[in-house]
Amino acid sequence: MTSAQHTASPTPAPHDQHDGDAPCGGCGTTRRTFLERGALIGAVGVASTVGLTACTDEIRSEDNAPSHHVGGTPTQAVQLAALPTGGMTTVQVEGRTLLISRPDQDEVHAFSAVCTHQGCTVAPATENGEDVFSCPCHGSHFDVTTGEPYAGPAKKPLTEYTAAIDGDWVLVTL
Ligand code: FES
């Protein structure tokens, strides 16, 4: 069992889940064209990577997202004291950004924060008095107990992780 560092705000998702030919919603760039442009920039020595960097955070495909993470290591993700009943939070656990909710005293749920639309980092939010996991890129909303999308362009649920309460901790199986 290992422990995780709790963070108050989400961090950008890693770029390693980029889909080969899925276009970026913001600029239409695919991974292939991104790599080709990167090679061209390197060849001519032009340091104009701002647009490419901004776009890579969005270039992902929901086709790659499993509905439930299959793992085997229960890991301390967040202390219960930091997650009151009815609360939700973002945590960093061994390099993964996870969303955790606690709808009831003895009930917790954990999900990947990688949006199943195009891979932006989803974060807890309250909108119109309702708790949601919200994506800042194109407005997808996900249920905080099931991960199911119910607003915006995402069609697949957030990848769920097995979560449980163990003493003073929420354990997530990585
Ligand atoms: S990346 Fe498009 S809604 Fe999240």
TrEMBL record:
Keyword Iron-sulfur: yes
Region span, Disordered: 1-24
Necessary cofactors: [2Fe-2S] cluster
Residue intervals of the Rieske domain: 75-172
Keyword Transport: no
Keywords from the named record: 2Fe-2S, Disulfide bond, Iron, Iron-sulfur, Metal-binding
PROSITE patterns noted in UniProt: RIESKE
UniProt-listed InterPro entries: Rieske_2Fe-2S (IPR017941), Rieske_2Fe-2S_sf (IPR036922), Rieske_Fe-S_prot (IPR014349), Rieske_Fe-S_prot_C (IPR005805)
Compositional bias annotation for Polar residues: 1-10
Function, as annotated: Iron-sulfur subunit of the cytochrome bc1 complex, an essential component of the respiratory electron transport chain required for ATP synthesis. The bc1 complex catalyzes the oxidation of menaquinol and the reduction of cytochrome c in the respiratory chain. The bc1 complex operates through a Q-cycle mechanism that couples electron transfer to generation of the proton gradient that drives ATP synthesis.
PANTHER family linked to this entry: CYTOCHROME B-C1 COMPLEX SUBUNIT RIESKE, MITOCHONDRIAL
Protein's name in the database: Cytochrome bc1 complex Rieske iron-sulfur subunit
Organism (species): Citricoccus nitrophenolicus
